[in-house]
């Protein structure tokens, strides 16, 4: 089967480097049945990655194999049934939409102090942990997740705890996701390139679900649950008026926040300061996580998209947003 040029089957081309990588994953082959896997296919028909399908969500097979996250086939059902308290605070967002940023802001508001959290957001991220580990956390708990609404703990609706849902424009989000995923790949894995990841974003092959599918689940709930779901935008907190946005979050969380305290939080949570503070945190995986902080800018997508890619992306956004009330900012003047 193995040849210098790779293996071609079912009309797909599996590169030699990818085949060699999978060959080295001996345990991986025993843990995950082939029927549970789907390939990530680029525009040339080449298989560039493999995903595990769990509850209609794509989970990177390498993430599971490397132990970055618990096996989602066992952990996702546990998350659905995990214990939820009515004073819980849950940060929900698509990948690279501002989860870490909002989690730090909410944590500061929750404890009434602008001191950074000692641990990282991954230590209280639903899909990164066995939910039993959250039972002994001090309350109110500030948790976070990238999961779709349908995969959240059932107790979220029953307890009506507070949910902060943040969005970011899809183009900057895709660029940031690409750099993040590229940084997380093991050195021996086939390299990821921008053209391939951009194609994945155009064909619904992103991690978990496409951004618009993630949005749909939350948007459907927002109309009925505005008392316990707050909708926010990355761009508004970033540049428009961070102090006003922080005070809006404080009001939703029912905590006191003066103008001075909001200004202090805005300063502590700017990109440069958070990047520096993160170096001192207790990381779950590794200290070499520079890919977590890249630019944090609005409009960086212009440095990545070709004219053709941008046109295709604009068409996709228009098509998927025609029934949505949300509008995105792609630049800040």
Would you kindly provide a brief summary of this structure?
Residues 86-323 form the Sulfotransferase domain. The chain is an alpha/beta fold and 333 residues long.
Question: In words, what does this structure look like?
Answer:
The chain has 333 residues and is an alpha/beta fold. It has one domain (74-321): 3-Layer(aba) Sandwich (Rossmann fold), CATH 3.40.50. Helices cover 41% and strands 13% of the residues. It contains 14 helices and 9 strands. The chain has helices at residues 16-24, 26-31, 61-65, 72-80, 99-111, 155-159, 170-184, 194-202, 211-222, 234-240, 242-253, 259-268, 271-278, 307-321; strands at residues 7-9, 12-14, 37-41, 46-54, 57-60, 89-93, 142-145, 162-167, 229-233. The strands form 2 sheets. Strands 1, 2, 3, 4 and 5 form a 5-stranded mixed sheet that branches. The chain has a 4-stranded parallel sheet with strand order 7-6-8-9, sandwiched between helices. A hairpin with a 2-residue loop joins strand 4 and strand 5. Helix 5 packs across helix 11 (242-253), helix 7 (170-184) crosses helix 8 and helix 11 (242-253) packs across helix 12. The longest helix has 15 residues, at 170-184. It is globular and about 55 Å long. It starts with 6 loop residues before the first strand and ends in a 12-residue tail after the last helix. Mean pLDDT is 85; it is low at 1-30. GO terms for molecular function: sulfotransferase activity. It comes from Pinctada imbricata (Atlantic pearl-oyster).
């Amino acid at each position: 089967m193995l040849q210098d040029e790779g293996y071609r089957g079912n009309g797909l081309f599996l590169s030699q480097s990818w085949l060699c990588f999978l060959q080295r994953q001996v345990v991986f082959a025993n843990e995950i049945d082939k029927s549970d896997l789907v390939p990530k296919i680029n525009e040339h028909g080449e298989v560039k990655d493999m995903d595990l399908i769990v509850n209609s969500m794509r989970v990177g097979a390498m993430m599971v194999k490397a132990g970055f996250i618990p096996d989602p086939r066992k952990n996702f059902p546990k998350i659905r049934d995990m214990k939820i308290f009515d004073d819980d605070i849950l940060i929900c967002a698509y990948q690279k939409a501002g989860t870490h940023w909002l989690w730090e802001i909410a944590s500061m508001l929750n404890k009434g102090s602008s001191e950074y959290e000692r641990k990282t957001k991954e230590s209280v991220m639903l899909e990164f942990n066995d939910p039993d580990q959250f039972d002994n956390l001090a309350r109110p708990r500030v948790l976070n997740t990238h999961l779709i609404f349908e995969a959240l703990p059932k107790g979220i609706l029953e307890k009506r705890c507070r949910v902060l849902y943040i969005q970011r424009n899809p183009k900057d989000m895709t660029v940031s996701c690409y750099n993040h995923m590229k940084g997380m790949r093991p050195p021996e894995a086939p390299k990821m390139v921008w053209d391939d990841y951009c194609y994945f974003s155009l064909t619904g092959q992103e991690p978990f679900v496409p951004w618009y599918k993630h949005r749909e689940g939350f948007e459907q709930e927002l109309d009925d649950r505005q008392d316990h779901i707050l909708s926010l935008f990355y761009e508004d907190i970033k540049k428009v008026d961070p102090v006003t946005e922080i005070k809006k979050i404080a009001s939703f969380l029912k905590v006191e926040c003066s103008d001075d305290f909001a200004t202090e939080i805005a300063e502590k949570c700017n990109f440069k300061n958070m990047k520096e503070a993160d170096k001192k945190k207790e990381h779950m995986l590794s200290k070499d996580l520079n890919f977590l902080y890249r630019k944090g800018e609005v409009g960086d997508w212009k440095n990545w998209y070709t004219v053709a890619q941008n046109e295709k992306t604009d068409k996709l956004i228009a098509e998927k947003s025609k029934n949505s009330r949300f509008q995105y900012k792609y630049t800040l003047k």
